[in-house]
């Protein structure tokens, strides 16, 4: 018998990961010049700075919070003596603060993109659509906090951890772990997978281009070519403190 829960929580996660991975690789290889954030800062700076800062900080904390929260082995929590209730409170407090920051920032960015005619005319449907979808996802995520406050013993948290880790372990019955949870939780998970599917085809893909390695490799810059991104030397190298040349001045 067909079961919607089995389709969404048993099959869809694998299809989502496959599309996100293959789609990202294909876009990088075929359209490297589109692999960017497509910033609208040149059109209007107002609302961008604070909106972008709040949004990115909030989203980054939420992303890694979900990643750590869902995929930390349960046996590790037990070994470290971290109670499920404590982890649940940490998720509510940190996630609530990050969610609020992301909500305010996303609202500012969405309002800016829709209210300014120049920015709206230079935005694609994908630009506006993915931002609106993220806004809805943040609102739904904030709504799940109220449900979580009703069961702070960590029982539901363990269900989601078991489901996500079972999916990664290719256990066919993983979907049964979330059958009885509230529909708002299910909708939140479903939206997360939709966003992941759209990831390679929207501006979100620029997240993979964060130049972290250049923090310890000065004198390099990213050059985008038809064959993809590559690193070249600029010929510049920062001077050590004792190697800086002393300025000379012409005689008067």
Q: Mean pLDDT, as a whole number?
A: 82
Helical segment tally? Answer: 8
Radius of gyration: 23 Å
- Determine the oligomeric state from the structure: single chain
| SSE order, one letter for each helix or strand | HHHHHHHHEE
Instruction: Please report which band the strand proportion falls in: under 5%, 5-15%, 15-25%, 25-35%, 35-45% or over 45%.
Output: under 5%
Would you report the number of β strands? 2
Q: What is the fold-level CATH name, i.e. the topology?
A: Fumarate Reductase Cytochrome B subunit
Shape: globular
Largest beta-sheet characterization: 2 strands, antiparallel
What's the number of domains? Answer: 1
From the 3D coordinates, which CATH architecture would you assign? Up-down Bundle
Helical percentage: 55-70%
Segments where pLDDT lies below 50 for 5+ residues? Answer: 40-44, 231-236
Look at the structure and name the CATH superfamily. Transmembrane di-heme cytochromes, Chain C
Intertermini distance: 95 Å
Question: What is the CATH C-level name?
Answer: Mainly Alpha
Structural class: mainly alpha
In spatial order, strands of the major sheet run 1-2
């Amino acid at each position: 018998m067909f079961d919607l829960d089995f389709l969404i929580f048993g099959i869809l996660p694998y299809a989502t990961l496959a599309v996100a991975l293959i789609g990202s690789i294909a876009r990088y290889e075929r359209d490297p010049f589109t692999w960017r954030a497509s910033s609208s800062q040149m059109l209007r700076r107002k609302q961008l700075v604070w909106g972008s800062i709040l949004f990115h900080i909030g989203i980054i904390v939420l992303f890694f919070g979900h990643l750590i929260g869902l995929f930390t082995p349960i046996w590790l929590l037990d070994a470290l003596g971290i109670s499920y209730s404590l982890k649940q409170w940490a998720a509510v407090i940190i996630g609530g603060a990050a969610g609020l920051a992301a909500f305010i920032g996303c609202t500012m960015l969405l309002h800016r993109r829709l209210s300014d005619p120049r920015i709206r005319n230079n935005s694609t449907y994908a630009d506006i659509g993915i931002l609106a979808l993220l806004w809805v996802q943040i609102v739904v995520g904030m709504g799940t906090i109220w449900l979580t406050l009703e069961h702070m013993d960590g029982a539901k948290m363990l269900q989601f951890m078991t489901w996500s880790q079972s999916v990664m372990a290719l256990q066919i019955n993983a979907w049964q772990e979330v059958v009885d949870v509230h529909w708002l939780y299910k909708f939140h998970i479903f939206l997360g997978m939709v966003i992941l599917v759209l990831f390679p085809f929207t501006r979100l893909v620029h997240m993979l281009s964060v130049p972290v390695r250049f923090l310890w490799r000065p004198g390099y810059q990213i050059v985008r070519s038809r064959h993809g991104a590559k690193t070249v030397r600029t010929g510049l190298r920062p001077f050590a403190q004792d190697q800086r040349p002393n300025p000379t001045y012409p005689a008067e």
